[in-house]
Write a structure and sequence with these properties.
Length: 135
């Protein structure tokens, strides 16, 4: 009879341990997925802003402000390569020099495609810009 109690206790203990281990790994997976989703969302938004609202546009206070916010987001969520590009870009701007956004755009594009399991694309980005109508 004591052997039956031991079997039941061992079974319950193993079930509880199994549940705890499963819960631990599920929680870790959920956190990793949420982090990945957050990073991808921010980088996609940064990509859209830099390609549509900042790059190849007339310099204005609004454009500069968007660029500042964009660069801070990339330094928070970007890869090491993107952060290095942003640091160099910031140094170029601070020195009063001309800065090039294409390397940053290409890095964002490549990183996002990799994270989304899309095939790699090489080559430069093509731009289509329409002139604003004059009144």
């Amino acid at each position: 009879m004591d052997l039956d109690y031991i079997k039941i206790i061992v079974t319950i203990v193993l079930a509880v341990i199994g549940w705890m281990v499963g819960n631990y790994f599920t929680t870790r997976r959920d956190v990793a997925n949420k982090r990945r989703e957050l990073v991808i969302t921010h980088l996609i938004e940064a990509y859209h802003i830099i390609t549509n609202e900042v790059s190849h546009r007339e310099e204005s206070e609004e454009r500069n402000l968007k660029l500042e916010h964009l660069l801070s987001d990339i330094q928070l969520f970007g890869s090491q390569e993107q952060i290095a590009i942003v640091k160099q870009l910031a140094d170029d701007v601070a020195a009063g020099g001309v800065f090039e956004l294409n390397p940053l755009i290409a890095s964002l594009r490549n990183d996002l495609r990799k994270q989304l399991n899309l095939p790699e694309i090489s080559g430069n980005i093509k731009w289509l810009r329409f002139n604003a109508p004059t009144l």
